[in-house]
Amino acid sequence: MVVAMLQEDNGTSSVASSPLQVFSTMSLTRPALLSSPSSPFKDLKPEERGLYLIHLLLTCANHVASGSLQNANAALEQLSLLSSPDGDTMQRVAAYFTEALANRILKSWPGLYKALNATQRKTNNVSEEVHVRRLFFDMFPILKVSYLLTNRAILEAMEGEKMVHVIDLDASEPAQWLALIQDFNSRPEGPPHLRITGVHHHKEVLDQMAHILTEEAEKLDIPFQFNPVVSSLESLNIDQLGVKTGEALAVSSVLQLHNFLASDEDILRKNGYSLSGDSASSLPLPNSGRISRFLNAMWSLSPKIMVVTEQDSDHNGSTLMERLLESLYTYAALFDCLEAKVPRTCQDRSKVEKMFFGEEIKNIIACEGSERRERHEKLEKWSQRIDLAGFGNVPLSYFAMLQGRRLLQGYGFDGYMIKEESGCAVICWQDRPLYSVSAWRCRK
């Protein structure tokens, strides 16, 4: 497994203390090509194969970044021979990073890129999108823990409230709100009048959620209303949310806010900041732009609680090499999670790797500007942004964290853990942070 491969000699299990860390400080010269890649490569130990692929990826990225296309092409050719979407963990990871680097080169030739993609129809397959999200939900405990912690924070904030309105900024999974309806039904003071507003860009997804939740509420005899809002988050009109006076409001955002960050980069450029090298990581957070406007809009609704789940990774660096190194850490850990639980021949595993993680990797590595939407950042940066918008952190309760840890143990997910960080939860794989869950209330 990659996590085992990335352990230090002293036996610690931190993915952060890996050969990637060593390579990031090395002068990246091209490794000697194997004279006959297929045969000698198979004879190497898994750790040695992984290290070779990592070094080859970094070397290729260095050539891509410097514009040395001939050398990049040679490295891509060898990576294509040695990586495989059906192989071991590092071969699978390398396959998607190889594809992403090739896409980045093609994008530097817009005419060639457009010509190659001219006849490809962009399909908007709702059922496939929902299916892959469901597979991610089933194969990883991450969303389960996120939903549990979010619901617990909402229940605690809404104690004694008789009219509760929950806004779901990505209403794609009814399981979260089925659990909340059942939890509200078990309150000693009885359930509140519950209204859930779901935001999603596909009407079919909202219709299905409305049917499932309404059926459950009727079965439990809970006063319930579902308000569907067909919109992307970027195009959302706050008035569509239908917030009413007298309601206690909660907001849930799961893996959504990072999509707003592209415009913040544009603002920094317009203000004359240089977005190159290590200086980019210490640049001030802009107080305008889509992310700030959106958070300010959420604050204007005066929610009693807002719970945010985001990938806890630093994939928004200004240079290709920064993003490649950081995303290699993250996706090696995520692919390792699947390697530990799901057979390599499982088609559903391949779908999640290709359509979920593979598309994220491609966006992080191949795209720039407003086209690069997967701008994951660390909890510390999100805390700064949300604080600037007028929110104060609400520490997740001991009971909520206990329930989250029990959920992980109950599902038998060895290797996962939850760390507490400044009152927030960070879900990790072998000490490697993967996703964070944080709760917030309006500061008056």
From TrEMBL:
Span list, region SAW: 366-441
Leucine repeat II (LRII): annotated span: 208-240
Region feature (VHIID): 133-198
InterPro entries: TF_GRAS
Keywords in alphabetical order: Transcription, Transcription regulation
Signal peptide: none
UniProt motif VHIID: location: 164-168
Keyword field contains Metal-binding: no
Family: Belongs to the GRAS family.
Identification of the protein by name: (rape) hypothetical protein
Source species of the chain: Brassica napus (Rape)
